[in-house]
Every structure is written in structure tokens, then in C-alpha cells.
Amino acid sequence: MRHVRAFGLVGLAAFALAAVAYAQSTPPATASTGHDPNAYAELDKTHWGDAKAGAAKAGACAACHGLDGNSTANPALYPRIAGQSERYIAKQLALFKSGLRTDGNAALMIPYANALSPQDMRDLGAYFQTQHSGAGVADDSAIASGPYAGKKLYQVGEQLYRQGDRSRGIVACTACHGPDGAGNPGPAYPHIGGQQSWYAEMRLNEYRGGQAALKDDKLWGLMALETKNLSDEEIKGLSTYLQGLHNRADQASPADVAAAKQAAATATPTPSATPQPSKAN
Ligand code: HEC
Ligand code: HEC
């Protein structure tokens, strides 16, 4: 059983790498140009996503988002989707396919969403939810003037993230997105820890500007209220803080850390760290 599983993963990796190479030369055959205005409503007819089925479809996403949802191809263009919740991913894919989400670089994304069935969207969501999100580094340059003079840029975000600002109706972001930005899949509050700062900044500006994809969307409305009174500097501070926010330390239990240390101490040094896929067969 273990062998079968290991083989399955190697097979998937090989498939995805092939997909990357292919996507870089020609647009993959899975891309489609047709919108479906009903795509968003059709999500109601689906069931919870199947991560295994999603893994088999994720090769189409790898060229841009990375096989595990941590984009390496061009992090300045493609958001991180690793660790994002199943429902949030499915919702965004359905919005792209419905023609309701056209912001930023959505034109690059839309043909891939158009090619998906509503259940594919949930399966892909379930797969990426199981992947671990990486993180970047927060900007610690000092602010020269203005209300935050003397603070570092990320500290402006850290304070708002942890404490909010009651006098301006800004709820601490931790209340919904959690202390490490992992979100809450139940009510579909997205995972935001480790997201590229430019992407978080773009989204926060959209919420503040009222560019709702769905004008009556309750969840969108929560963020529109939250961002209404944020200044540009505060949005930048929050975005860079998010880029550095991650949960890896929290996820490793003391037992995990001890086991990893012991494994490292007893490991026999090998001349090359390259994985040997043939051993998995
Ligand atoms: C050709 C590159 C490309 C491919 C292939 C691609 N995407 Fe994207 N994706 C993007 C870009 C660019 C964005 C950001 C759009 C924007 O600026 O709003 C995006 C955004 C997203 C988002 C929204 C993330 C968020 O937090 O709001 C999701 C979810 C997503 N993609 C999932 C997928 C899945 C699943 C696949 C495979 C079926 C896929 N993408 C294939 C380029 C791509
Ligand atoms: C009351 C709950 C709530 C609070 C408080 C809140 N958020 Fe959100 N946030 C949400 C929900 C819900 C969404 C998804 C909206 C949607 O579905 O369009 C979201 C979306 C986002 C996104 C976009 C994620 C993506 O990948 O597209 C970012 C970035 C974000 N929030 C950052 C913040 C920051 C920073 C704060 C604090 C200043 C904050 N949020 C406070 C509920 C909340």
C-alpha cells in the first residue's frame, strides 16, 4: 500500500512537471474562452471536494501557481494558493468563470477557470487546502514622516492585525483570519498568511474601493467595512506583514521538532541530496 502511494505521488509529480514544460511553450489544451454566467450559482449543486481528484487536475495550474500552490514561476504575478480553503478557492474559480471577477491579472486566470466544472473547482480547492503555504519576508524599512514616523512598515500592519483600531471601527484581523493568518474554512474566511504583499495590497484596495464582484455578497461586505477607514500606508503595512506571516513554527509540535533533530543527528551524510525516485518503485 505504501509503495502504491509513493508511486502515485511520483507519477503525479512527473505529470505536473510535464504540464509545466508544456504550459510554458503553448497554452494548455484545458484552457477555454467561454464564460458561463451560471457558474457561481452551480456551486450550490456540488459536494465537498475530493483532494485526490483535485490533485489529478492540478497539473493545469502548476505552470503559474506551482505544483503545491506556492508560485515560483513569477511570484510577482501569481498569488499563492497553497493552504487556501476549499470553499474560498471554489468560490473564486466560479467568480472567474461567471465573468464576475475581472480584476488585476484575472485575464490570465480566466481561461483555466472556464475549463472547470463546478465539482472540479471544489476538488482543486480540497487539494490546494492540503498543501502547506510558504511565506516571504516582511519589509522592515523605517517610516520617515507622517502619523507612523519612526515605526517600521510591517509594525504598522502588525498592530492593526493584532489589535485593530476600535475608534475607527477596524476589527483586529486575527478575529477572522486567526493569529497566523490561516483563516477559518467554516465560514470561508480565507487563508492570508504568507501571501505575496502585492496581491494582498491589490485585494485590500479592491475591498476599500468597493469593487465587489458580487454587489450583494455578505463576505465581501465584511472586508469592505473593515478596509473603509484604512490609509494607503496602513494597507501597505498590513500587506507586507501578511507576506511574512506563517504558521510553520506553530504547526510543528515539540515532539515533531525532537524527532526531526534526532533524524538529522543520526542521518548518514550522502554525497547528493537529490531525491531518488527509483527507490519509490
Ligand atoms: C496562466 C497562469 C495561470 C494558470 C495556469 C492558473 N492561474 Fe490561477 N491565477 C492566475 C493569476 C494571474 C491570478 C490573479 C488574478 C488577479 O490578479 O486577480 C490567479 C488567481 C487565482 C485564484 C484566486 C486566489 C485568491 O486568493 O484570490 C485562485 C483560487 C486560482 N488562481 C486557482 C487556480 C487553479 C485551481 C488553477 C488550475 C486549474 C489555476 N489557478 C491556473 C494565473 C493562473
Ligand atoms: C469579520 C471578519 C473579517 C475581518 C475582521 C477581516 N477579514 Fe479579511 N476577509 C474576510 C472574508 C470573509 C474574506 C473573503 C471575502 C470574499 O469572499 O470576497 C476576507 C478576505 C481577505 C483578503 C483577500 C484574500 C484573498 O486571497 O483574496 C485579505 C488580504 C484580507 N481579508 C485581509 C484582512 C486584513 C489585513 C484584515 C484586518 C485589517 C482583515 N482581513 C480583517 C473576513 C474578515
TrEMBL record:
<keyword id="KW-0813">Transport</keyword>
<dbReference type="Pfam" id="PF00034">
    <property type="entry name" value="Cytochrom_C"/>
</dbReference>
<keyword id="KW-0249">Electron transport</keyword>
<keyword id="KW-0349">Heme</keyword>
<protein>
    <submittedName>
        <fullName>Cytochrome c</fullName>
    </submittedName>
</protein>
<dbReference type="GO" id="GO:0020037">
    <property type="term" value="F:heme binding"/>
</dbReference>
<feature type="region of interest" description="Disordered">
    <location>
        <begin position="250"/>
        <end position="281"/>
    </location>
</feature>
<dbReference type="GO" id="GO:0046872">
    <property type="term" value="F:metal ion binding"/>
</dbReference>
<dbReference type="InterPro" id="IPR050597">
    <property type="entry name" value="Cytochrome_c_Oxidase_Subunit"/>
</dbReference>
<keyword id="KW-0408">Iron</keyword>
<keyword id="KW-0479">Metal-binding</keyword>
<dbReference type="GO" id="GO:0009055">
    <property type="term" value="F:electron transfer activity"/>
</dbReference>
<keyword id="KW-0732">Signal</keyword>
<feature type="signal peptide">
    <location>
        <begin position="1"/>
        <end position="23"/>
    </location>
</feature>
<feature type="domain" description="Cytochrome c">
    <location>
        <begin position="152"/>
        <end position="246"/>
    </location>
</feature>
<dbReference type="InterPro" id="IPR036909">
    <property type="entry name" value="Cyt_c-like_dom_sf"/>
</dbReference>
<feature type="domain" description="Cytochrome c">
    <location>
        <begin position="49"/>
        <end position="132"/>
    </location>
</feature>
<dbReference type="InterPro" id="IPR009056">
    <property type="entry name" value="Cyt_c-like_dom"/>
</dbReference>
